[in-house]
Specification:
With 162 residues, this protein is an alpha+beta fold. The chain has 3 helices and 7 strands.
Length: 162
Amino acid sequence: MKRLLLTVALCAGLSACASAPTVYTAANGPEAVGFSSYRIEPGRYRVTFRGGPGGSPEQVADYALLRAADIALADGYDWFRVSDRSMRQVGSNNGPRVSLGTGGGSYGRGGGVGIGLGTSFDLGGGPALTQTLEVVMGKGEKPPGADVYDARGLRSALGPRA
């Protein structure tokens, strides 16, 4: 039993090392957790935020918006409009698993009835979500619209969570 518990603990520890948490930081590569941005033309950007396995859709979407606000403020803009957005999932819940179980069977001439009971633990952390936004920046008074954000207001609302 000690050996089984040690194996489960080691597998859980290894999976924690393999999956990166969702944090607001620059991505170190195309598959890394974090944000990246691409300037399409002056005042227009494509912003991408990739979350870690199991990161919530809300957190991934908020961090993409936060990155857009940071770009707007750094470039001297007051607001931005999201002209296009997409969320995609990479991976699945079919990560490595450890199973624990008991059961019975038949041996030689004798028969036996077995009842199996088991459970498994997903060590993969779940799917990773990626939010991509295309944003258009602007100066002055923020125009009306559901997809228009005040860069400073959004920064102050979401920034403490990052």
